[in-house]
Amino acid sequence: MAAASARWLRVRSGLCWPQTRSRGTRVCARALSCRFYSGSAAFSKVEETDATGIENVVIPQKKTWDKVAVLQALASTVNRDPTATPYIFHDDPYLIPTTTMESRSFLLAKKSGQTAAKFIINSHPKYFQKDIAEPHIPCLMPEYLQPQIEGVSEDALKERIKLRKVKASVDLFDQLLQAGTTVSLETTNSLLDLLCYYGDREPPSDYQFQETQQSEDLEEATEEDNKKSKRKDGRLIGVTWKPENNAERIFALMPEKNAYSYCTMIRGMVKHQAYAQALNLYTELLNNRFHADVYTFNALIEAKLLMSNGKYEDRWNNVLELLKHMVAQKVKPNLQTFNTILKSLRKFYSHGKVQALNTLREMKAIGIEPSLATYHHIIRLFYQHGPSLREPSPIIYRIMKELRGKQFYPEDLDDDKFFQSAMNACSSLRDLELAYQVHDLLNTGDNRKFVGTDVHRNFYYSKFFILICLMEQIDVTLKWYKNLVPSVFFPHSQNMVHLLQALDVANRLELIPQIWRDCKEYGYMFHNDLREEILLLMARDKHPLQLQITFAECAADIKSTYEESQTSSQRALNWPANSLNCIALLFLRAERTQEA
After folding, report:
1. Whole-number pLDDT of residue 224
2. pLDDT at 439
3. Per-residue pLDDT averaged across 343-361, rounded?
4. Distance between CA 450 and CA 58 in Å, rounded?
5. Which end of the chain has fewer surrounding CB within 10 Å, N or C?
6. What distance in Å separates the CA atoms of residue 236 and residue 372, rounded to the nearest whole number?
7. Which SS3 state, helix, strand or coil, does residue 550 take?
8. What's the pLDDT band for 85 if we cut at 50, 70, 90?
9. In this structure, what are the phi and psi dihedrals at residue 133, rounded to the nearest 5 degrees?
10. Considering just the CA atoms, what is the radius of gyration of the chain in Å?
């Protein structure tokens, strides 16, 4: 023990080994002793050493750490366990999903339970007053959803607006007007905000959950499904702007209007697809010598591009006209302004590529750093229907070179679409090295949070894994398979088919029985294309007897799945002929003549 302590002391003393032996030990002693004195005492010691030629020690200023800094530091020391399921599923070991559908059902059930619990807490807040969280978490505390202020007053109106009671707020506003009470401009604008945001409709109790689900449903369909693109803007499905609604009525009754009033109405009209009314109201705003803010201009740009059905030159000129208005009104564009333009340019197809690059240059020229959503829109524009086989665009290579090693923070609602679109472009280009660059960027810092929802994450890793199966060596492919499945994503049946084809190319058919066991675990035992692929690979060539016995056992297992999927009267009647032929052949090679 003493010898170990002596060695440890020699190592520690080596950490402060001086540049010169004559006085290094004294400096080291001073440095160690200064830790136990006050700041002034330590500072005086440093001042004395300055005359001897040693550099001054700069004492750092006090740093205020985040409350979760220690937890973040501890979390950074732990790597992902490839043998474990995702953390979100660590609830009940009997409920851990093994397929994509099961995982989605699990997440929906969990979210439904959270919504039900929040409803109970908010309905009976007096029973949930104890706060045991440290630090305090406001979103976990009950919300008082019932008005506390009685009577007809402006304070009561403010409370109902804050509680998002649309109908009650409108009724109380009308009562105030009938009583001859003048409502302040600020409160009236707040009421307009409420009406324009929800489209003059009462928000459902689970609006936040519905909004999340609708944003997924309204998002553009992936090219894997080959469906039409849909827009995502967080609006309620089926809610459109009705003419002469309460928002327009209250806006017309306002004795005094300011720019905020007009901007709120314009954004509400654009949000609920009343594009023509929004542009007309913008003209009225200009006639009253008001100026719009940057968020209103962003909505107007979207309205101009969505309501125009003419040539792309005319639609682009409409956007340029609005940008000139921004310059005239001294309104500086923000990140969402350029992202709105780029997102709209995707509707121009090939005609919008030049304008998109010019928009990106303009962003950088005025000092606005592009976000992941910016590059997502550009990639989608240049690789909308897959790259051209004659002249593939090199734009994604420039993007990845610029983004290499960077860590991003959420700035736009479409930031979580970048990795999905980038990996889809890599798959279209059949460029594995580029896919590795995208994956390295995903694992840089906390960028993995931008992989998106469960559906988007499965799409990303599915494209990545298929590309690995097509272009990587089999040992590396199996290593990725072990690392990604099922700890990161649940493979589709098509992923397993590509893995089988990779085993065939590398002549590693002895692993097929293990792949079949995995397919059963992931719920793909009844997929005909997968069963036929496995049987064809096992029966194509003759192998050593021991391997043939293993193949025969696998074939018997596949045969049982055919029997389970059909009734007794239909057994063996609707089986594919190739499958029956392969099973019989495998039984014969394994000397199981009677079963054959």
Report:
1. 38
2. 96
3. 87
4. 39
5. N
6. 26
7. helix
8. confident
9. -80, 135
10. 33
Specify the residue for token string 């928009």: 359
| Helix, coil or strand: residue 318 | helix
Give the span between the Cα atoms of 240 and 223, in whole angstroms.
29
What's the confidence (pLDDT) of residue 565?
67
List pLDDT tens digits, range 485-503.
888 888 888 999 999 999 9
Nearest one of 413, 410, 484, 407 to 447, comparing CA atoms: 407
Handedness of CA 531, 534, 540, 541 (dihedral sign): negative
Place of tokens 């995995």: 518
Say how far apart CA 30 and CA 50 lie, in whole Å: 13
Structure confidence by residue, pLDDT tens digits, 103-145: 888 888 888 998 888 888 888 888 888 888 877 888 778 887 7
Structure tokens at 53: 């030629």
Q: What is the mean pLDDT of the chain?
A: 81
CA–CA distance, 275 with 263 (Å, rounded to integer): 14
Q: Which contacts qualify for 504-509: CB closer than 8 Å, 24 or more apart? A: 504/537, 505/474, 506/473, 506/474, 508/474, 509/537, 509/538, 509/541, 509/543, 509/547
Alpha carbon distance 429, 423 (integer Å): 10
Q: Where are the beta strands (DSSP E) in 394-510?
A: none
Per residue in 474-498, is it b (16+ CB within 10 Å) or e — as a string? beebbebbeebbbebbbbbbebbbb
pLDDT in tens, 251-268: 999 999 999 999 999 999
Closest of 352, 265, 274 to residue 306, by C-alpha: 274
Rounded to whole angstroms, the Cα distance separating 551 from 390 reads: 44
Q: For tokens 């109106």, what's the residue?
A: 157
**What letter represents residue 248's amino acid?**
E
The count of other CB atoms within 10 Å of the CB of residue 441 is 23
What are the tens digits of pLDDT across the range 1-12? Answer: 444 444 333 333
In angstroms, rounded to a whole number, what is the distance separating the alpha carbons of residues 156 and 140? 26
pTM of the model: 0.77
One-letter amino acid for residue 297 of the chain? F
How far apart (Å, rounded) are the C-alpha atoms in residues 25 and 30? 9
